[in-house]
Structures are given as structure tokens and as C-alpha cells.
């Protein structure tokens, strides 16, 4: 039995309802299932969902089922396609083809992908229809789910420009989809958010909690991916202090 990781903006009792549907189907087919704690997504954020789905694939072992269910905000249609597949790394993914799997597909490659047909357009089909399918995929009960192969090139992606904030953690640290570039330890830069200068920041190569100056803004190579950058405030809340949100654009220029 594969473990299941749910990446979703349904973080109240709705998450438990989905877990219940997964467990109920697993019990019905006689296969126990392990559902990990919820991975909460910023509501209605395709960017955050895409990042967190990829991050979970990077941290969980092959064979993990990633079920991404997030409310969509653009390109709305009366019907939509639901897909499931497997990356070249051996991770399984399930969910609406709303762009959440684009980053995953680009970085890990796709071994196989299928469409799940006849998804009812009901208020919570993510629980009543898709969640039981997640349990079957976790149980490797796939025969009926491979009848409709899907073109890997039809997997939607989310446009995430360089410098985009893709996540803000509970400490207010912002994760940016951009490399630190040629910055050297202790370089001082001017940070801008959506083109407006907001503060100075220091690039550090050590851990942020070792910094002594409380409230100092620092940037450093991301703890999530080597080709990303994190911005934080020493024992403070950078994102909260400067009203930074997922989807904002952060850039910098070297001050000294």
C-alpha cells in the first residue's frame, strides 16, 4: 500500500471528509492506507499548489501518491479534466488538470498519465468521486483506471515568472522562484516587491537563527530547492511586515 499525501486548500473538516472517503474505500477493497497530515495550500493559489506538490515529491519517497485538490481561480470551464499518472521518479499524482502538475512534470518527467472519465460536476466530487480512486491507486488497483491514456503534452502548467513568491511559511519567510545568482556572503541588496523598493537585506550563507540583529532582513539559498531563494526577517515576520503574498514579485539590486 502506497502512502497518500493530500495537497489542498480544503484544510478544515473537509480534509477529514476526504480522508474518511479514502479510508472507507481502502477498507472496502481490503487494503489499509496511510494518509499523511494535510499539506495546506493558500486558498485559490495555483502557484502555491504547484510548488507544494513538487516539494512533496522531492521529500517523499517513490511510490507516494500526491493528491492535489485546490480551488481554481482562472480559465474556468463548466467541465474539467481529472488526470492521474506516474513520474519518472516513481511518484504518483492525482487531481484536476489545472496546472498543479506542470512543475512536477517538467522537473521529474512523466512515465505515464491517464484521464479519469465521467467525473460528476457536483459540489465536492473531490471527496465523493476522486478520493475513492486515490485509495485504489494507493492499493495498486489500477486496471480500470488505465483505459484512457492521456497525452503528457496536455498536462497544464502554471506561469510562474522569475522572482515570484511561491510560498510563505509560518514564520513569514518568503520563498522565491529565482536563484541567488552571483551574490556573495554579506552582500547588501535593496529589495523590491512588485517593483517598489521596501527595505535593505543582507545575503547570508549561514543559518538565519544565528543572526544576532533582531528584525534584520536576510536572504539566503532556499531550504526547499537549491535554485530558489528565501527571504526572512531575523526573529520576525518579513512577509507580514511588508504585506508580501504568494504571487508577488520580489527582486533585488546590490547596494554595497
From TrEMBL:
Domain of life: Bacteria
Domain S-adenosyl-l-methionine hydroxide adenosyltransferase N-terminal positions: 6-141
InterPro entries per record: SAM_HAT_N, SAM_OH_AdoTrfase_C_sf, SAM_OH_AdoTrfase_N_sf
Protein name stated in the entry: S-adenosyl-l-methionine hydroxide adenosyltransferase N-terminal domain-containing protein
Organism from which the protein derives: Streptomyces hygroscopicus
Lineage, uppermost ranks: Bacteria, Bacillati, Actinomycetota, Actinomycetes, Kitasatosporales
Amino acid at each position: 500500500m502506497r502512502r497518500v499525501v493530500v495537497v489542498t486548500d480544503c484544510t478544515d473538516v473537509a480534509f477529514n471528509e476526504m480522508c474518511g472517503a479514502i479510508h472507507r474505500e481502502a477498507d472496502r477493497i481490503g487494503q489499509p492506507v496511510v494518509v499523511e497530515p494535510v499539506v495546506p495550500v493558500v486558498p485559490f493559489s495555483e502557484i502555491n499548489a504547484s510548488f507544494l506538490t513538487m516539494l512533496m515529491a522531492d521529500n517523499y519517497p517513490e511510490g507516494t501518491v500526491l493528491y492535489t485538490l485546490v480551488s481554481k481561480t482562472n480559465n474556468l470551464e463548466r467541465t474539467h479534466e481529472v488526470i492521474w499518472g506516474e513520474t519518472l521518479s516513481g511518484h504518483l499524482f492525482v487531481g484536476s488538470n489545472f496546472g498543479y502538475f506542470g512543475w512536477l512534470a517538467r522537473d521529474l518527467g512523466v512515465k505515464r498519465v491517464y484521464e479519469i472519465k465521467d467525473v460528476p460536476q457536483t459540489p465536492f466530487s473531490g471527496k465523493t468521486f476522486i478520493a475513492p480512486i486515490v485509495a485504489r491507486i494507493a492499493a495498486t488497483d489500477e486496471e480500470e483506471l488505465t483505459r484512457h491514456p492521456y497525452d503528457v503534452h496536455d498536462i497544464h502548467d502554471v506561469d510562474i515568472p522569475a522572482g515570484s513568491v511561491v510560498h510563505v511559511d509560518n514564520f513569514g519567510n518568503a520563498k522565491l522562484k529565482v536563484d541567488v545568482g552571483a551574490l556573495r556572503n554579506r552582500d547588501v541588496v535593496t529589495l523590491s516587491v512588485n517593483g517598489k523598493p521596501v527595505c535593505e537585506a543582507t545575503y547570508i550563507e549561514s543559518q538565519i537563527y544565528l543572526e544576532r540583529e533582531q528584525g534584520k532582513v536576510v536572504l539566503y539559498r532556499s531550504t526547499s530547492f537549491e535554485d530558489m531563494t528565501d527571504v526572512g526577517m531575523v526573529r520576525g515576520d518579513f512577509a507580514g511586515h511588508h504585506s508580501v503574498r504568494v504571487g508577488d514579485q520580489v527582486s533585488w539590486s546590490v547596494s554595497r
